[in-house]
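Protocol step 4 of 6: structure prediction from sequence.
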Amino acid sequence: MKKLILGLLLFCSSLLAEMNWAEYDEAFVQAKAEKKIVMVMLSRSTCGVCNYMKKRSIYRGNSH
């Protein structure tokens, strides 16, 4: 139950997170310099959760 609640909290917090897009190699160089983590999203067209994330959070604003 604790893992489920933690997962839901992480998911909800990602909906409100600001996304700063960069090319793959640039992102890791910048993250290392700033001592930050990099979020990589892999998806497919038939994934319901992936499509939800695309519509709700990830592709708002400055996306590629």
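Step 5 (inspection) to follow. Residues 2-58 form one domain.
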